[in-house]
């Protein structure tokens, strides 16, 4: 896939959302993927993995059932009708529900709170802040083979020591928590900070409510001009900028 950028063009630095999309994309392998509603970042990750990295991925827009769309640009939600563009088929909701029960290879989830164990809260916090509700989260987290958690905010009220309400409970399948500032890898023990996406390691420690280890070696995430140009060729409308 070519970037479509004129020769000699200097790109502006990657935004935190673009860094998140590339970090999520690197976590993907071949298989069946489902993308939820408020999902411009994971959709970009999927399209990058499929069209740039060349992975054999089948992806489904959960709210509409569009399969393998080829959008001209990104839209804020996978539920938007524009994602029908280029779709190879449209699944009725009962078929999507059946696939959820069987388990996707990769799912993306976000929430109002996440803790270091990978538990997600999309329901309500102890202060009374309301989330969007469970939707397919409980089943999706229980059945998916690989769960990638993405949080669009990174502060101590979002990355907490223990969630106020467990909406989604991992089953040893959460692989990473990715935020605008950091990429945490989830293993059998505590999470490990493996990449600094923006800011510094000290700023991440200050704004993270759960305990974590830090990987040895460099925590930088270099992004090449070619990677960024290919990403922006997918995100023609600048949704992530």
Gap between N and C termini, in Å? 21 Å
The unreliable regions are none
Give the SSE order as H and E letters.
HEHEEEHEEEHEEEEEHEH
Structural class: alpha/beta
Label the overall shape.
globular
What spatial order of strands do you see in the largest sheet? 2-1-5-8-10-11-12-13
Per DSSP, the total helix count is: 6
What summary fits the major beta sheet?
8 strands, mixed
Q: Helical content, roughly?
A: 10-25%
Proportion of beta-strand residues:
15-25%
- Average pLDDT number: 93
Radius of gyration: 17 Å
DSSP E strands, number:
13
Topology:
Layout: H1 16-26, E1 31-35, H2 40-51, E2 57-61, E3 66-67, E4 89-90, H3 93-102, E5 106-109, E6 113-115, E7 120-121, H4 137-143, E8 147-150, E9 159-160, E10 174-178, E11 182-185, E12 192-196, H5 201-206, E13 213-214, H6 225-234
Parallel strand pairs: 1-2, 1-5, 5-8, 6-9, 8-10, 12-13
Antiparallel strand pairs: 3-4, 6-7, 10-11, 11-12
